[in-house]
Amino acid sequence: MKTKTFDCVKMKEECQQAVLKKYGGLPPGDRERQMEADILASPILGDFYRRIFLAEAGKVRSRVAEGQAEYKAESGKN
After folding, report:
1. CA–CA separation, 58 and 51 (whole Å)
2. DSSP notation for 7-68
3. For residue 60, what is the DSSP state?
4. pLDDT beyond 80 at 36
5. Where are the domains of the chain?
6. Inter-residue contact 54 to 61 (CB < 8 Å)
């Protein structure tokens, strides 16, 4: 049996605690702006974020979730 060398649950909890410590006291709007500014300033994530999430210079693409899904049962088929 292999010995586990990496605990992803522990890492996730540590990351969540770091985010809460850094942004926890900010109101939601300010928190989002600060997080985006930090991502854009990152040498690793900045370019990726700009390519994927920013359309034209300075404009943010809106990401809208679909409306409610409609599920209908087929009737009369056996």
Report:
1. 12
2. -HHHHHHHHHHHHHHHHTTS-HHHHHHHHHHHHHH-TTTHHHHHHHHB-STTPBPP------
3. B
4. yes
5. 26-62
6. yes
Q: Which amino acid is at 17?
A: Q
Answer whether residue 78 shows pLDDT above 80.
Answer: no
Is-contact 49 40, C-beta < 8 A?
Answer: yes
Average pLDDT over residues 26-38: 92
- What residues does 60 pair with on adjacent strands? 54
Per residue in 5-28, pLDDT (tens digit) is 889 999 999 999 999 999 989 998
pLDDT at 53: 81
Question: CB under 8 Å to 45, separation ≥6 — which residues?
Answer: 39
Of the candidates 19, 15, 50, which has an alpha carbon nearest to the alpha carbon of residue 32?
19
